[in-house]
Amino acid sequence: MMIAGVRILPGTVSWCFLILLFACRNEPPSPPAESELIGSVMARRSETVDSLLTAGAAPDSRDDEGTPALIIAVNAGRIDIVKRLVEAGADVNARRAAYFQSTALMEAGVRNDPELVTYLLDQGADLTMQDTLGDTPLNWATYYGHLDLVKLYLERGADWSVASKQGSAVDIAMHRGHRDLVRYFIEQGAGDPIGAEAVALFTAIRNDDAGKVEDLIEAGLSPDQTDELGNPALVMAAEMGREEILAYLLRQGADKDALNGVGETAMARAARFGHGDIVNRLLSIKADPDLAGAPFRITPLLAAAQAGHTLIIQELLASGAFPNAQEGINGYTPLMLATAAGKVDAVKALLAGGASPYLKSFEGAGLYDMLRYSNNPEIGTIIQESLLEQ
């Protein structure tokens, strides 16, 4: 028989009818795959993102590592894509599956974008949530030194006293050396009040006014005077590279091994900020090159390694500093920190000075895990050659 001019064999009409029937049914298309939306967000293609969401893509799609599309958009700095995802129903408080289980608001603290942060807050982003270290969005913004965001979070009710494994936001500001943030927290009432003469002393150190420092000490202030947050004058002088003031304070009997409010010595602060002459002066009077206190437990060598100050690393190792000390938060060694920071010469100096490439962090991360952060293949080659030599 013939149907529409096509010869059909006997007995096949019913099957052809069924095929045509099912082919003509109005079935809704499958929603786009998560990978399509993630790829478009990563490529910053806002029109494609909009089309995919309209077609039914899940706004809470995640990449292969469990990172929500919203966090990817935040890190791309694309507030237009962030808004479209939220409008489509994305959870503003969704966490990463890994990487400290952070939220979009936390990672927004990496960027100094008050407009983006304000939008997330207005959409219900939670200022009180904490990552796996206990850090809040305020702590994240403080870590990266963004004063505008810190002010915004405090205006929205954030609490600077919430303590994580790294301490409070105030502790983090001190550890990171964000002096403008430290001063702001003090102005907002952080710490303990000190007298006018003590305030004048720390102002003189900041202004590198050695004469004023001498006048205040001779008038009766202790060379071990601390500021509102417990930071000794000697440690501040070392951090800021005030060598003349530091030498004077030492002559007046200042404790060469005094710790600041986050457990760091004058030598550690000098090493962190590259003041090699001050490190050498402190080594010459037998200051302890391995001393460190809670919570960070940053020795001078750890501080120098993180910042990549190779000459200071070599001086410390030559003076007997322990090459495999582990900092107090994650258990990273100097070699791990230098590797993660991509500091090639520092890595070479540490390996030459006896640093072990085999040690693990408290969570089991090794040196090769640190390579993911450095994005420097040369360091990988150096480490591989070192392992083959041992």
TrEMBL record:
Keywords: ANK repeat, Repeat
Xref: InterPro entries: Ankyrin_rpt, Ankyrin_rpt-contain_sf
Top-rank taxon, per record: Bacteria
Keyword Phosphoprotein found: no
Leader sequence segment: none
Parts of the chain that traverse the membrane: none
Pfam family, one: Ank_2
Gene3D superfamilies: Ankyrin repeat-containing domain
Residue windows of the ANK repeats: 65-97, 100-132, 133-165, 229-261, 296-328, 330-362
Name under which the protein is recorded: Uncharacterized protein
Provenance organism: Flavilitoribacter nigricans (strain ATCC 23147 / DSM 23189 / NBRC 102662 / NCIMB 1420 / SS-2)
